[in-house]
Amino acid sequence: MNRILSTTFLAALLSSGFATAFVVPNPPALENKAFVVMDADSGRVLASSNPDLQLEPASLTKMMTSYIVEHSLASGRLKESDPVLVSEHAWCRGTSAESCMYLPLNGSASVIDMLRGVIIQSGNDASKALAEHIGGSEPAFAEIMNAEAKRLGMKNTNFMNATGLPDPAHLSTARDMAILAQAIIRDNPKYYPIYAEKEFTYNNIKQGNRNALLYTDPTVDGLKTGHTENAGFCLVASSKRGNMRLISVVMGTNSMQARADQTRALFNWGFSSFETIKPLAAGKVLGDAQVWFGREDLVKAGLDRDLSITLPRGQKDKVQAVTRLMPDLEAPIAKGQKVGEVVVTLDGKTIATQNVVAMEAVEETNFVVRLWHHLKRFLSNLF
User: Fold this and answer.
1) At what angle do helices 62-75 and 111-119 cross, to 10 degrees?
2) Is 122 a catalytic residue?
3) Where are the CATH 2.60.410.10 domain residues in the chain?
4) Is residue 62 annotated as a catalytic residue, yes or no?
5) Per-residue model confidence as pLDDT tens digits over 70-122
């Protein structure tokens, strides 16, 4: 029999298709090709239009370039001070047709400077130079980008380059861009503050961040703009108000002003319509799971990350959460191993689950005790 520990929380969770159970105001009507509003903690899409329509992402592409660079820094493959050479392929010639960091031809710059050049200045030269440094060539780096996209669950994305310069096969979606933004925020918090920096000076040239919301809304702290003639004006942004973070993606608007205004409207709608509660923190022990063949008969079970619950406003008093611990656990048990799950329900319907893990390791016991446990389990199954 499963051991069940019941707790009623003052919280509820929105999941896909769940909003119909509640009265939630309609999102604003917007003139664009696609948009998504996502809850950053859970990854649930709160509102969307054409979320899986493949479109040109323009310089939103550079979020994947920066994500890979950040991962390489975090893993130690790259160091912030490493010099990166600027090939003729990477070098910007200073035309109005592309965004540049203005790196010197056949010169070099540090990885951290180039990362800022990608994120803040949207530098095509920095993006290409980093792509060549990591992948050997830009096409090889595009293969790395696509592998990362697949790993993250970006199902309708195909990258052909590191910059977002037009290519018929270079496509993504509003949903996939939101997934990427969520990964940037979640996976490399050390470097996420760069996305909020308003300007960067390199080679005595100061350039401002093109995300206009950074200058007008202190709750906005990223992420990236994009524009080409075919893609229109695009913006992926994130805002945190209180303990709730939202991600907005708008693609194919008709001006810089429109992409900022539409993003602001989506944030205002999302924060006024929904709320996030975190009733259980990481490390909270929820119960003791029985263990067979171990030096200990029980292992403390709890959460390895906060239980974050996003719901339509006014529904937080209607939820029940049940902790279900797995039966017949056998040692050895590793710390962090799944030993059950928390099931969150509203009106009897499951709306979320989260793994419950072992808070400590349990080693296997000796041969004699294992024989005794086998006998005990056999007898318990008989009766």
Assistant:
1) 150
2) yes
3) 3-15+279-382
4) yes
5) 999 999 999 999 999 999 999 998 666 789 999 999 999 999 999 999 999 99
